[in-house]
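Aim 2 progress update. The chain analyzed this quarter is reproduced below.
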Amino acid sequence: MQSVLFKCNGEIGNPSDWEGPIYVVKKNGRRLMESGISLDMTYFVIDGVHYVSWSNREINQERDVRNENGTNGTADIYIATTNGEKPWQLTSDPVCLSRADYGWSRLEVDVEEGTYMLRHGDDLFLSISGTGCSVVYCLGLLHAKYGSDLLDPASWDKVPYPLLNRESVPGQYGPGHNNFFKDPENGVDDWMALLYRPLAEGVEALYDMQRIIHVMPRCAGYIGMPMVIPIWKCTLNMI
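Predicted structure tokens:
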């Protein structure tokens, strides 16, 4: 599994106008993770600089030692700049921003993935999802200040606990893998879409496809640094 993108050469709704898949490659033209997989890439622009962030998972293919959950290796968060006209071509070396170094992202497997950018004034938030894709899946957060070097890991702080987990909302287990978008009515309020599972037991992580997409209006309240507080007392519209 490797990160790829598709390029639209015409009408967005016409499948024949799409080109791809095109592999995302490093400056030297080689794939992002030759000894494993890369996935969950997101793209954002800050002050005209184009960035991508994704998850790399190195897999020891010579000595395939798997843990009790059947997985091998860790998944870590990376960032790099990219060519705005050819976004599949990195223009900087990949930098590791975050690893599964807290217990909440190591409950089943050592995984951090699914990044997405949210900007609020001078605060830049990068959401991350962690651990196995079962009921223990949860949502975490990285934070940097506008104007800092986003390719420097020292510019980022990591909230040491999950913002959302299976205890956050009754009946919603394993919340995570989110994105942010603006209120389609006023273009101001931040909304969030994410996945969760309706069952607390009998879930076999990746092999169980029973996951529900929810859209949450007015999902984020800002009360200082570096926290984003989800407002759960809002209408949840199931898609």
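Residues 223-239 have pLDDT under 50 and may be disordered. The longest strand covers residues 36-46. These observations will guide the mutagenesis experiments scheduled for the next reporting period.
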